[in-house]
Amino acid sequence: MKNLTLKLVVLSALSVASAQTYAAGTLCSLVAAPTGSAYINAYNSGRTIPPLAGPATTDLLARMTFGSTPYAAGSGGSCEITGLANSSTAPVAGYTLAASTNRPLPYITGGGTSIGTVVDRVWRNSAKTMCIFGTQVSNLTNTNHTTGGAGGTTGPYFEVNGIARGGHSGSGAVNVGYFLPSGSNASPAFRVGRTFTSVQHRNYIYGGGTLAEQQNNGSGYLDLPTIAGSTTLNINGVNTALAANTVTPAAGAGQQDAQVNSNWVEFTVDSVYKDDDGGTNAVSAMTYIEAPCNSSAPSTWVKTGAIRLRQTAQELASFKEIAIDGYAPPGATVP
């Protein structure tokens, strides 16, 4: 359930978080070297999975499978910030907006045709020692992501299943979270990982089946991927489209792994102009990373390829990554 307790989070010796009061809800700590999984649950905390042979559960604890049913702001994600006026508002008291840029999302890296917008923001505290880096995918359009032309009524559309931000190898533990703007039908952040890799997640059956089958993971698919594999793998999973009303092909050995990479933070989301499962969620949550910074101008912090948007073939699409420029902590190296 929604956590309305005011909490204090200490990041490091540089952090002034002990003097800050959070909004309703709280950011979650994400250490630099996680164990067991590079990921922590965000929206999906408390998720229960019903037995396929038994009755499906319909309460919020089921949380479905990473976007297979609608979701709502304030529905209980453990890292969700609520009560903000809008996505321009700082999620933590004592921070003010230091930089904000709307970056075109091209249909390919370096392409000229925009298929949406990436909102890239930096809030900074009064001591100028801590910053919050915000990312939101917005205004995804009716555009074919393979050609940059009209998408038509059936697509294909670029589906954002992962948002990765680089430059955090020197940040130590960071705080992470998300905000769902009211009335936007935005996708929450289902999990957050200290990894470069976006890991595919699929439910047991696509385009049909019982509620229990929709709530269950496909065979071999994990809510929290295991730590293994390559630190440079951008997307991991089964790169084949699903067929409607059939059981999802199993994820094989190594296809649900994500190696820890302290330089990156990855948010698993589900945003697309028109989803294969029938949903319309052309905007993501505003996602947050709280990390040390300094008093220099954020305009000098922009790094090539600091933001990576990944399509992980959750349903009918294939693997695809689009890299764009973005703010990174001062002195950061990307990749």
What gap, in angstroms, lies between the N and C termini? 37 Å
Strand content: 25-35%
Question: Could you spell the SSE succession in H and E letters?
Answer: EEEEEEEEEEEHEEEEEE
Tell me the number of helical segments per DSSP (H or I, 4 or more residues long). 1
Low-confidence stretches: 1-22
What does this entry look like structurally?
- With 335 residues, this protein is an all-beta fold.
- It has one domain (17-327).
- The protein has one helix and 17 strands.
- The protein has one helix spanning 211-215; strands spanning 28-30, 39-41, 80-81, 95-106, 114-125, 130-138, 160-166, 174-179, 191-193, 198-199, 205-206, 235-236, 246-247, 264-271, 286-292, 302-312, 319-327.
- Strands 1, 3, 4, 5, 6, 8 and 15 form a seven-stranded mixed beta sheet that branches.
- Strand 4 (95-106) and strand 5 (114-125) form a beta hairpin.
- The longest helix is centred in the middle third of the chain and has 5 residues, at 211-215.
